[in-house]
Amino acid sequence: MKNANIILFAFTTLCFCNSAFAINPKISAYNDIMYCLVDPKYAKNGELTAQSDTYFFYNLETLDLDITWTEWLSDGAGGEYAAPYDSVFHYKNVTLKDIATNPDLVSFYEGTTTFLPSLQKQASEYFSQILKENYVFITSAKTRNLFYSNINQIDNRLQEPYHSDLTIWATESYNWFKQNSYSDFTSSAFGLHIGMDKYIKNNLLLGFSYSFSDGETTYKNNLTQDDSIHNIHLYSMYNFNNVYLSLLLNYGFSQYKNIDNFNASNFGTVINMGYKTPQNIIAETGLRYLNLLPVSYNDSIGNEISFDSNHFLTWTTGLKYTINLTPISIKMKFNILYDILYDNDEITIYYNAHDIFANASFKSWNPFGIETGLSAQTTFNNGISLSIEYSLSTRQNFHSHTGLIKIDYKF
């Protein structure tokens, strides 16, 4: 459903939800067909002649099925009357798939054309509501957050003035972010980012980097999800006097473990144009594009889970300012972000035990966001530079903090 989607990850894939959920797991169906068993003209007094008004009560949590109906008895004079009781059949631990393949239920109660389709429809609606209330944006949130963090780390390299040396750099970072919308969760991760770059000509910088993030996400019910995320980047910058154009290409691969085990991939690109003033102020604007590729896997109990591909195109504009206080330089930045294109999060689950599909769609993050950053850097005589950086990315119901230590060495 294009608005412009995110991928999400379920913190539970149990198809029979716990009793803490407010959604009622009890569904029912009614069959008004009257089944004639014996012609009352030929029946003895009190003999069963027909059944009618069949009700089917099914509990999606306990898997209990109760079937009740009205019995009709012969009055011995060619007529019949409703029995003063209801007949009840009880089935335990039966799934909708079991019901569909039970010859007694399907044939005698005409289940394929009466109650079974109604129960399947209600079950699908029930599980869709479960998805809406209990699923979170772990894949998309983690991927977007790390993508932006890596951009900011590389962005500082792109502001380096011309030098003829090959530079190798590395950062050790810690990120913490919280999302308050839908199902609340917090996430933290330690990251390592290493790269190298060099000016090929006086005005062309080319670079390569690799980042690894090891994180954990905690949900409000104290369940935790572990993740390992790898990213590879190619970046470059071309200077036209005081104007520059920068480009970044990214490919990412993620592994999620604990609650469900699955892999996800993404690719993205960033293009920026900026203007440098003599007062050490940089005005910059650009676009960020991120594509989270489709995900499909089977969970531990056989349910098939899939997430749609999701696309994000974000416009950014902002200012950067550098204060030189030899031997320390202070860098500050402020960016405004706006999502031009974003997809609604969509998830589909095939519940194998019931032979039904359920799906849900969620709104993405608020499209408007802000980024700020502050760093202090000092350079030593042996070609080593050391910096400490902090950055904040925030949107409505979403806040991300990153602190890092960075070291550069010019050969």
Structure description:
- By secondary structure, this protein is mainly β.
- Helices cover 13% and strands 59% of the residues.
- It contains 4 helices and 23 strands.
- The chain has helices at 96-101, 103-108, 115-134, 138-158, and strands spanning 9-10, 26-31, 35-36, 48-59, 64-74, 80-91, 135-136, 167-179, 185-201, 204-219, 224-240, 243-257, 262-276, 281-292, 295-298, 304-307, 310-325, 328-342, 345-351, 356-362, 368-379, 384-395, 398-410.
- The strands form 4 sheets. It has a 12-stranded antiparallel β-barrel with strand order 8-9-10-11-12-13-14-17-18-21-22-23. Strands 2, 3, 4, 5 and 6 form a 5-stranded antiparallel beta sheet that branches.
- β19 (345-351) and β20 form a beta hairpin.
Task: Tell me briefly what this model is.
The protein is mainly beta. The chain has helices spanning 96-101, 103-108, 115-134, 138-158, and strands at residues 9-10, 26-31, 35-36, 48-59, 64-74, 80-91, 135-136, 167-179, 185-201, 204-219, 224-240, 243-257, 262-276, 281-292, 295-298, 304-307, 310-325, 328-342, 345-351, 356-362, 368-379, 384-395, 398-410.
Order of helices and strands: EEEEEEHHHEHEEEEEEEEEEEEEEEE
List the uncertain runs: 1-21
Number of strands: 23
* Count of alpha and pi helical runs: 4
Biggest sheet features: 12 strands, antiparallel, barrel
**Share of residues in helices:** 10-25%
By helix and strand content, what is the structural category? mainly beta
- Strand fraction equals over 45%
Outline:
rod-shaped
Termini separation comes to 51 Å
Rounded to an integer, what's the Rg over CA atoms? 31 Å
Average pLDDT, all residues = 83
Main-sheet strand order equals 8-9-10-11-12-13-14-17-18-21-22-23
